[in-house]
Design goal:
The chain is α+β, with helices and mostly antiparallel strands. It is about 50% helix and about 15% strand. Strands 13, 14, 15, 16, 17, 18, 19 and 20 form an eight-stranded mixed beta sheet that branches. It has a six-stranded mixed β-barrel with strand order 2-3-8-5-7-6. Helix 10 packs parallel to helix 21. The protein is elongated. It starts with a helix and ends with a helix.
Length: about 800
């Protein structure tokens, strides 16, 4: 222990004698280790930390899929059949995100909620903080409605009052008794306020009709000893049996099983692994840079090392001392890196998706601290070993020659070693620059994607009518008329707001998270086989919807005041549907059937055709066509108000809220956003990768430039006598400048060639993250070469200018 402390004191004194070298090394390693720590914290929080449930590895997500849709929300009758026939799970459960109008406690408030089966909390393996969870008897129709509150909602809305148990809350004009407080760790789904038993909605067609797929998510807990493959095999049999029993709804419907964690964050895995690989390369460049500094510093320490060897120090002793110095430097750099990582976490969180809470849980936990210690010690050994081996190989004659100012073969060998390290840095930096350039181009291409509508100055606000007030009549025509009257009155009030240019309503507005699709038939065409019916997104819209979004009308007309209940059912289709169902024909006047297999189903006459609109994915072409129904004939309980503002759309919020409540005082508004902000949130993952990869690429470029500068500066120091003689013999400044710059550019050229070759081989790994650009895009390659070449030239120019200022008399005297 005493020997270690003595060695530490000696090392610190040695480092304090070279403050420039010490500070530079600590900063280089601090930046590299800090970047790695910050990104590993992100990867750990999102991908590596287990879900906060007991034995989370046995939790699976189950979904349906078809040849057209890779993932479909579960059909509730299918869930009942799954649960009755499966033997692989302890139990399975379904849940659906929803929202409710909370009234009777001051101003009406919109609360987020989840409709869940009674098995939901059992499957997750969680217990309530207070009270109880749902029993099977709660999950049936009839009786008093019961709910659980989330821990967050209980604390924020009711100040964590334990007496809330037994109180009654009114949601959507229905009374519910609070029976418990859900535990805070529930994250499937996240950010819920209330939980309502699914059986309380026995007459809801979207839940009871087979084939409706009403946004249900399914999860299950495997029995001990049952594998994922065994469960998947069992559910293939179940799906096949359902297909045989219900060919009209279950034809070609399969079941997909995946670990619950993968279902939650799997789409971000590739992006996060890319970031981790990028910072790993930055760390390698930093290590190479510090190794170069250590090799250059060996010139200053050559006499010291030789003297220690002459006094009997073995090579192993010398190597251990030099490695100890490197580890101390790495530890100091690791401390700086830890500080930088902690400072940068908030900025990284701001760039991450906000719809997945795991991104917001980034923190420096024990796993991250172990990681930074491992990386720090490993880095110290990596960047210190080669210089230690080189420096400890002592030749007393060469050392004396060096002391006398004469060039040596050891100096030339050291210079070659430094050149190799810089070549590696340039190669890795060019690889990162190519990746950064590709991601930037991809991001720019995504922003140029034609939307089919104009998002500028568009405000979207959601409302949801109470089913008890607007769908309480036995006669559906009466319910439809009541909802249509409300929407007419609301639009009249909103259109009277001075700052509103035009307004409309839509049930499935672009990038609002509402995705509704339905199968249909084409009147006059052969009846499709079961499971092969044409399908389309559908949306109920008001007459000014297309004018508000500035969606181009290609043919026919838009809706008008005559398209009401009792009149001919009409529909507007997009050009994708027209091309699929009526290729080379004029679709106006043709008809679509609500059900392709029922002769007496409702027939809709096509009155217009509009441009295709992107709804929820910028990176791929819309898979589904779209049809629009007039809100006066097919109103929905939940609608989106769309307003095109004359000025700032955010300034309309309070006026719209007053307009809504002037028509229905118990109706809150929610999800208030501009369409531009919604589009921006769609690009959050791409923006995260672009910003971070670009920042780390710039850091790598600067480190490579510093390494190149160091090598050339060392070379000039070694060749000062030669340069002085050249100048004394009449060499011009230009030739000296060319001599130095050429030496640097040769190193850069070799590294650049290696990096570009590596990028052409490896960029196919990130092809899935790119849009509209190839992994071997020549623009990305040329941009990277140009940027790196310019920075390298500037790094060469500084020592070259120093070389031409060498005084030949002074050089010869020294």
């Amino acid at each position: 222990m005493r020997s270690l402390l003595s060695q530490l004191r000696y090392t610190i004194r040695l480092l304090l004698k070279s403050p420039g070298f010490t500070v530079t090394t600590i900063l280089i390693m601090g930046l590299a280790i800090g970047a790695n720590t910050a990104i590993f914290s992100l990867v750990d929080a999102v991908l590596l930390e287990s879900l906060p449930y007991p034995d989370p590895g046995r939790l699976l997500a189950l979904s349906e899929n078809s040849p057209v849709y890779p993932k479909i929300s579960l059909d509730y009758p299918d869930y009942l059949d799954w649960r009755a026939n499966q033997h692989s799970f302890e139990d399975i459960a379904v849940f659906r995100r929803d929202s409710f109008n909370l009234t009777g406690n001051g101003d009406p408030e919109r609360v987020s909620g989840a409709i869940v089966t009674a098995s939901y909390f059992r499957v997750l393996g969680v217990r309530p903080a207070i009270g109880r969870t749902f029993a099977e008897s709660d999950d049936r129709s009839g009786g008093v409605g019961v709910i659980l509150l989330s821990d967050r909602f209980w604390r924020n809305r009711f100040a964590a009052d334990p007496k809330i148990i037994g109180r009654t809350l009114v949601l959507n004009d229905v009374s519910y008794e609070v029976i418990g407080i859900a535990p805070p760790q529930i994250m499937n789904p996240e950010n819920m306020d209330v939980y309502v038993p699914m059986g309380h909605f026995p007459d809801l067609p979207t839940l009871t009709d087979r084939g409706r797929h009403p946004g249900l998510n399914c999860l299950g807990r495997l029995k001990p000893g049952v594998s994922l493959d065994a469960a998947a095999a069992e559910f293939r049999v179940i799906a096949r049996n359902l297909e045989l029993r219900y060919p009209d709804t279950n034809s070609k419907i399969a079941v997909k099983l995946a670990p619950l964690l993968e279902d939650v964050v799997g789409q971000y895995r590739m992006t996060l692994y890319l970031l981790l690989a990028v910072v790993g390369l930055v760390l390698l460049i930093g290590c190479a840079n510090v190794a170069n500094l250590l090799l250059g510093r060996a010139i200053v320490r050559q006499r010291e090392i030789s003297l220690r060897a002459a006094l009997g120090a073995s090579r192993g002793r010398l190597v251990s001392q030099l490695l100890f110095e490197s580890v101390v430097l790495a530890l100091l750099g690791g401390g700086v890196g830890l500080l930088l990582a902690r400072i940068s976490l908030d900025a990284i969180i701001a760039l991450t998706p906000h719809d997945v809470g795991r991104f917001e849980h980034i923190h420096l936990n024990g796993v991250v601290l172990i990681f930074i210690m491992t990386v720090t010690l490993g880095s110290g050994l990596v960047f210190g070993l080669w210089p230690a081996l080189k420096t400890s190989r002592v030749n007393l004659r060469d050392s004396l020659d060096a002391a006398g100012g004469r060039g040596t073969t050891a100096g030339a060998a050291r210079q070659r070693s430094q050149g190799m390290l810089v070549i590696g840095q340039v190669a890795l930096a060019s690889l990162l620059l190519v990746a950064s350039s590709l991601l930037i181009q991809s991001f720019q291409e995504l922003q140029k994607v034609p939307l089919g509508f104009d998002p500028h100055k568009l405000l979207t606000i959601k409302i949801k009518l109470s089913s008890s007030n607007y769908q309480g009549e036995a006669d559906q025509t009466t319910n439809t008329a009541k909802m249509a009257a409300f929407y007419d009155a609301l639009l009249q009030r909103i259109q009277g707001i001075p700052s509103v240019e035009v307004s409309a309503l839509g049930s499935n507005a672009p990038f609002n998270g509402d995705n509704y699709s339905r199968d249909f038939g084409v009147v006059g065409q052969p009846e499709p086989r079961l499971g092969e019916e044409p399908s389309a997104e559908y949306e109920s819209v008001s007459p000014d919807y297309f004018r508000t979004l500035r969606i181009q009308l290609i043919r026919g007309r838009t809706f008008d005041a005559e398209d009401r209940v009792g009149k001919t059912p009409v529909v507007i289709i997009d050009e994708k549907l027209a091309n699929r169902c009526f290729p080379g024909q004029d679709p106006i006047g043709k008809q679509l059937a609500e059900d392709a297999h029922k002769a007496d189903s409702v027939k809709y006459t096509i009155v217009g055709m509009v441009r295709t609109v992107r709804h929820d994915d910028l990176a791929s072409q819309p898979k589904l066509a779209e049809l629009y129904l007039p809100v006066s004939q097919s109103p929905e309980l939940q609608m989106t108000i769309l307003l095109r503002a004359k000025d700032d759309p955010q300034g309309l919020v309070s006026a719209v809220r007053e307009a809504v409540q002037s028509v229905d005082p118990n109706l809150p508004v929610f999800n208030i956003r501009t369409l531009e902000s919604q589009l921006s949130s769609e690009l959050v993952t791409q923006r995260l990768s672009v910003v971070l990869v670009s920042l780390f690429s710039i850091l790598a470029l600067l480190l490579a430039a510093v390494g190149l500068y160091g090598v050339l500066a060392y070379s000039i120091a070694q060749r000062t006598r030669e340069i002085g003689i050249r100048i004394a013999l009449g060499a011009e400044s230009g030739s000296i400048l060319t001599l130095v710059v050429r030496q640097g550019l040769i190193i850069v050229g070799i590294g650049l060639a290696a990096g570009i070759l590596g990028s052409m081989i490896l960029t196919h790994l990130i092809q899935s993250l790119l849009y509209g650009v190839s992994g071997t895009d020549p623009v990305a390659l040329l941009t990277s070469i140009g940027v790196l070449g310019l920075v390298a030239f500037l790094a060469c120019l500084v020592p070259a200018l120093r070389a031409i200022r060498v005084d030949p008399i002074t050089a010869l005297r020294e």
